[in-house]
Design a protein that fits this description.
The protein is α+β, with helices and mostly antiparallel strands. It has one domain: YefM-like domain (YefM-like fold), CATH 3.40.1620. It has three helices and three strands, in the order βααββα. A three-stranded mixed β-sheet has the order 1-2-3. A hairpin with a 2-residue loop joins strand 2 and strand 3.
């Protein structure tokens, strides 16, 4: 869930990019970027992104093992 200070429009991101990027360096967190007529985007720093990828690969490995175990039955 995103707090209200973590949701901003794309225009604000562009206008205040330097300040926002500094805040993300000081306090890593995810931001939800809204765009008119488009799907929202989630902005995270590299550390958070790597953690998300690691978790996804773990889940896929668990799912893959479950699928192959069921196929052996």
């Amino acid at each position: 869930m995103f707090r209200s200070n973590q949701v901003l429009c794309a225009t604000k991101l562009i206008r205040q990019f330097a300040r926002i990027s500094q805040e993300l360096q000081d306090d890593p967190q995810a931001l939800l970027i809204t765009q008119k007529g488009k799907d929202p985007l989630v902005l995270v720093n590299a550390e958070i992104f790597e953690d998300l990828l690691h978790r996804r690969f773990e889940y896929e490995a668990i799912d893959w093992n479950t699928t192959t175990d069921e196929a052996d039955l």
